[in-house]
Design goal:
By secondary structure, the protein is mainly beta. The protein contains no helices and 17 strands. Strands 6, 7, 8, 9, 10, 13, 14, 15, 16 and 17 form a ten-stranded antiparallel beta sheet that branches. Strands 1, 2, 3, 4 and 5 form a five-stranded antiparallel beta sheet that branches. A two-stranded antiparallel ribbon has the order 11-12. A hairpin with a 5-residue loop joins β16 and β17. The chain starts with a strand and ends in an 8-residue tail after the last strand.
Length: about 210
């Protein structure tokens, strides 16, 4: 009741297509896929109001648009996903699908360099390694909120801006997950960008 925002988001780059010209596989099974694109580095400007205080803001955002013609298959329990605006103008989307034992069942990534060159990565070029975990005081679910992620020859570290970014939407969409802002660091621990990290299927299998 005491929060409002009025923001304009303008594209700064061409749409980033994932997979094969926007056709993005989601499992080892052919046909389990989505159409998927992102708009990284959106220019944001506007106002945020908290109570009676209104503040002018500007920055960058990320928009995802993805649509499916099927649900996740029965062997998939959840996913880990990151969309990141990097400070040099490059953009990264990296994700993996986990099985019931927490192992990587499928993975995919797209990296657009600052010069506009786009690379896609196969599952064997991607590795997620969980670090520090945080347990929600509200639900008791434990989430790995810090990560080391390898994409091709690059290794990145993910650190949350704050631990408590859990979303309990079981009363509406039926989903419990962690989703929030994260810092992106390079191999030396230097801050190189900011991203949005999504962790699903840790409290219970994702029902979709």
């Amino acid at each position: 009741e005491n929060f409002a925002f009025d923001l304009s988001l303008l594209p700064a780059q061409a749409p980033l297509l994932h997979g094969n010209a926007g056709y993005s596989r989601k499992s080892p099974q052919q046909g389990s896929a989505s159409y998927y694109y992102s708009l990284p580095h959106l220019r944001v400007s506007g106002t945020i109001q908290i109570g009676r205080q209104r503040q002018t803001v500007n920055g960058e955002a990320w928009l995802d648009h993805e649509w499916f013609d099927s649900f996740l298959d029965d062997a998939s329990d959840g996913w880990d996903w990151l969309g990141a605006n990097l400070d040099d103008g490059s953009a990264l989307m990296v994700s993996r699908i986990r099985d019931a034992h927490g192992a990587q069942r499928w993975a995919f990534a797209t990296w657009r360099a600052a010069d506009g060159v786009v690379r896609t990565f196969a599952p064997d070029q991607i590795e997620w390694n969980a670090g520090r975990r945080w347990r929600s005081p509200a639900t008791g679910v434990e989430y790995p909120v810090e990560w080391t992620v390898r994409v091709g020859e690059r290794t990145l570290q993910l650190r949350p801006l704050m631990d408590d970014q859990e979303n309990d939407t079981r009363a509406t969409t039926g989903t419990l997950y962690w989703e929030g802002a994260s810092r992106v660091l390079d191999e030396r621990g230097r801050l190189i960008g900011r991203g949005y990290l999504e962790l699903t299927g840790y409290g219970e299998r994702l029902g979709m």
